[in-house]
Specification:
The structure holds two protein chains of two kinds. Chain A is mostly helical. Chain A has two domains: about 70 residues, no CATH class; about 210 residues, MetI-like (MetI-like fold, Orthogonal Bundle), CATH 1.10.3720. Helix content of chain A is about 75%, strand content about 0%. Chain B is an all-alpha fold. Chain B has two domains: about 25 residues; about 240 residues, Orthogonal Bundle (MetI-like fold). In chain B, helix 4 runs parallel beside helix 8 and helix 4 runs antiparallel to helix 11. The chains are: A mainly alpha, B mainly alpha. Chains A and B meet through helix 1, helix 2, helix 5, helix 6 and helix 7 of A and helix 2, helix 4, helix 5, helix 6 and helix 7 of B.
Chain lengths: ~300, ~325
């Protein structure tokens, strides 16, 4: 064993530097190849969306030309999308539904988590156990009974049918709970001596300290709600309340397919989210990492 | 002194003013009420309804002449004979059996690669993660074009690297290829998420362990097998279980690309739930499928508990 350490080449020898160079080079080669694997469909979509000649998109698709913006370029496909459908409406629907769900969720889930973590009352332990048990139920298992229920309520084809059932989320509550319980108890005690009410403690002391967990929950909820497809597919009919994923799927399933327009539509859904991700990527990565503590 | 301090503490802890304590309980319930109410109405009740409806012939739009009846185990008995359901379950298990190991090892590879102290690794991390923020429906649409049967990019690529010996294939209309094609894009879209979870796991491994291994003369590969992998045990359990559950929820990409076809080659449990419950309006039957689906997810989640507990008793 120790022989290897002894015979290890000196860091200044040529052999060592060559080997180190080869290793570094191959590492970067692997990383670049992987980067191409993860980027090529996105680049392909963006490039094709500005090719205004439909036959050229088809002609280019089988080679590297698919990734090169060449030939007739322009924003015609984007204009076509706006001319053929109320894209702005779809975008508004998605932003409104997801925004309201996330913000409502931050309020409601953090409040119950605060009560569970920092207030003493009868039934606390029971509610906590119930919520942790509820984490296990996937939405997919309750989709059909929920559909039956909202149908009876007369909620189909509305905003609230896409928002209200998804505001309260057991896993978000769990994340808030874990964060709140880690804050020192003295904080509340001190405020208590000053005669602060539970609401004032929550609002003035806990909230300002809890920005990281709010960001985490907001991002995780955004990610899981933005791409939501099955539920709006069942509960929206006309274009009025239809969110982006359902809108593009319906556009995509109409024949004949105009690929330039389909890619322009795809790009307009993807670019805003990619931009938000690039701006806050540190937060995104941290939030996703936190979700791993589940269980 | 000590007794004084502890009584002071006790007074503080227990002796919240009586008025405040009553106020505390009331406030706690006010704080809990909105989330609790929503969870009961929109999660717990539908969950219990699924178990109830599974034993009825409930329809989405009730026929006033045919009231909903209790049918006992009829829905479940029918499931036993339903070839489409067998196909769906088999596909979900197949998807889990193939995608989970591939996606988990790729995620670990990516995490190890971008965890190195090299320049630009954060750029690569961002790139590998970007499919995660791309909506699955959009991903499925782009890949449908890439899988174009004639001249699509994937066919062109396979023909180029095999020197025209392989392909072109009819990816999405071939019963043997459609499901693997969906698996590939699912891995492409999802692996970045698991990479980040692995990355967090890697960064939690104390550096001293590697230093000790180096002192023992372990090379990089030995360090990976003897330090990194065992230390990532809990992370791996989490990633495997979470990916398995996702495999059973498979719906969006299948619905966009094949709708369960060709000839049910890509049928999944959730496609069936959607078709039976929403398209055929058979809420009772779809609920029975949902119950089976839930029991599988529950079983998988319990496995995680078992593995994690084992770990705790060992350490």
């Amino acid at each position: 064993m120790s022989a290897t350490t002894v015979t290890k080449a000196s860091p200044y020898s040529l052999g060592y530097r060559v080997r180190k160079g080869i290793r570094l080079g191959s590492t970067y080669l692997v990383m670049i190849l992987l980067a191409f694997f993860f980027l090529f469909p996105i680049i392909f979509m963006l490039v094709s969306s500005i090719k205004t000649n439909e036959t050229q998109i088809i002609r280019d698709m089988s080679g590297l030309a698919a990734f090169v913006p060449r030939g007739e370029l322009g924003i015609k496909n984007y204009r076509d999308v706006f001319a053929q459908m109320p894209f702005g409406r779809f975008m508004f629907n998605s932003v409104f539904v997801v925004g309201t769900t996330v913000i409502g969720g931050l309020a409601v889930n953090s409040m119950i988590a605060y009560a569970l973590a920092r207030l003493r009352f009868r039934g606390r332990q029971f509610i906590l156990t119930l919520i942790i048990a509820l984490i296990i139920i996937p939405f997919e298992a309750v989709a059909i009974p929920l559909l039956l229920m909202v149908n009876r309520f007369g909620w189909l084809d509305s905003y609230h049918v896409q928002i209200i059932p998804f505001i309260a989320d057991p896993f978000s509550i769990f994340l808030f709970y874990q964060f709140f319980i880690s804050l020192p108890k003295d904080l509340d005690e001190a405020a208590l001596v000053d005669g602060a009410s539970p609401f004032r403690i929550y609002w003035n002391i806990i909230l300002p300290l809890s920005r990281p967990v709010f960001a985490t929950v907001a991002i995780l909820q955004f990610l899981s709600n933005w791409g939501k497809f099955l539920w709006p597919l069942m509960v929206t009919r006309g274009f009025e309340y239809r969110p982006l994923p359902v809108a593009i799927q319906q556009f995509f399933s109409q024949d004949p397919k105009v690929w330039g327009d389909i890619f322009a539509f795809s790009a307009m859904i993807t670019i805003p989210v990619l931009a938000v991700f690039l701006l806050f990527q540190k937060w995104f990565v941290q939030s996703v990492a936190t979700s791993g503590i589940k269980g | 002194m000590a007794t004084q301090a502890s009584t002071a503490k006790a007074v503080l802890a227990k002796g919240r003013p009586t008025g405040w304590r009553r106020n505390e309980a009331i406030m706690a319930w006010i704080f809990s009420a909105p989330a609790l109410l929503l969870l009961i109405v929109f999660l717990l009740v539908p969950f219990l309804m699924a178990f109830g409806l599974a034993f009825t012939d409930q329809r989405l739009i009730p026929n006033p002449n045919l009231p909903t009846r209790f049918v006992g185990l009829r829905n479940f008995v029918r499931l036993l004979d339903d070839e489409t359901f067998h196909r769906a379950l088999l596909n979900n298990f197949l998807f889990a059996a193939i995608v989970v190991p591939l996606q988990t090892s790729l995620a670990l590879l990516l995490a190890v690669v971008v965890n190195q102290k090299l320049r630009f690794t954060n750029v690569f991390r961002t790139i590998y993660f970007s499919p995660v923020v791309t909506t699955m429906v959009v991903v499925a649409i782009i890949w449908t074009f890439l899988y174009n049967p004639g001249e699509g990019l994937i066919n062109a690529f396979i023909q180029a690297i095999s020197l025209n010996h392989l392909g072109p294939y009819d990816w999405l209309t071939n019963t043997k290829l459609a499901f693997p094609a969906i698996m590939l894009l699912s891995i492409w879209q999802g692996v970045g998420f698991q990479m980040v979870i692995y990355l967090a796991g890697l960064q939690d491994i104390p550096n001293e362990l590697y230093e000790a291994a180096q002192v023992d003369g372990a090379n990089r590969w030995q360090q990976f097998w003897n330090v990194t992998l065992p230390q990532l045990r809990n992370t791996t359990i989490f990633v495997v279980i979470a990916t398995t559950i996702l495999a059973f929820k498979l719906f969006d990409q299948v619905w966009v690309m094949t709708k369960g076809g060709p000839q049910e080659a890509t049928m999944t449990t959730m496609i069936m739930v959607y078709r039976e419950g929403f398209k055929q309006l058979k809420v009772g039957y779809a609920s029975a499928i949902s119950v089976v689906f839930f029991l599988i997810v529950l079983g998988v989640s319990l496995l995680q508990r078992v593995f994690l507990r084992e770990e705790r008793t060992v350490s």
